[in-house]
Amino acid sequence: MKINKIHHIAIICSDYEKSKQFYVETLGFKVVEETYREERDSYKLDLAIGNEYQIELFSFPDRPERPSYPEARGLRHLAFEVDDVEGFKRELEEKGIEVEPVRVDEITGKKFTFFKDPDELPLELYES
């Protein structure tokens, strides 16, 4: 048995238009396909990072909030590799996104920081 790679990450949002704008316009992900599924009253937005399809953004009516603090068991955060953490941080802040101070990973020596999407999903920038 062999797993080749992570195929995609699915994110359920509370406000589809707001999250779509955040991931497409703020973070610059490319729209691969957008589908409205009437039977579920749900959108599915397929997004690419670079040239690879990687994120599915879903909207479903009346979804419960995700507990973040104290941190719940399960997936902790989603991390994106970037060339320049401090530069990307400045760009996000210019767009009105609150970003934590840049820190250095004591194990790898690489810079990283955290910010949140419109539903408070913790996102990390990690320098390549």
| Ends distance | 30 Å
If strands are numbered along the chain, what order do they take across the biggest sheet? 1-4-3-2
Radius of gyration: 16 Å
Largest sheet: 4 strands, mixed
- Assigned CATH class of the largest domain: Alpha Beta
Number of helices: 2
- Quote the beta fraction: 35-45%
Order of helices and strands: EHEEEEHEEE
- CATH fold annotation of the largest domain: 2,3-Dihydroxybiphenyl 1,2-Dioxygenase, domain 1
State the CATH architecture of the largest domain.
Answer: Roll
CATH superfamily of the largest domain: 2,3-Dihydroxybiphenyl 1,2-Dioxygenase, domain 1
Show the helix and strand layout:
Blueprint: E1 9-13, H1 16-26, E2 30-37, E3 42-49, E4 52-59, E5 78-82, H2 85-94, E6 103-104, E7 111-116, E8 122-127
Parallel strand pairs: 1-4, 5-8
Antiparallel strand pairs: 2-3, 3-4, 6-7, 7-8
Structural account:
By secondary structure, this protein is α/β, with parallel strands linked by helices. The chain folds into two domains: 62 residues, 2,3-Dihydroxybiphenyl 1,2-Dioxygenase, domain 1; 53 residues, Roll (2,3-Dihydroxybiphenyl 1,2-Dioxygenase, domain 1), CATH 3.10.180. Helices cover 16% and strands 38% of the residues. The strands form two sheets. It has a four-stranded mixed beta sheet, covered by helices on one side. Strand 3 and strand 4 form a beta hairpin. The radius of gyration is 16 Å and the shape is globular. The relative contact order is 0.19.
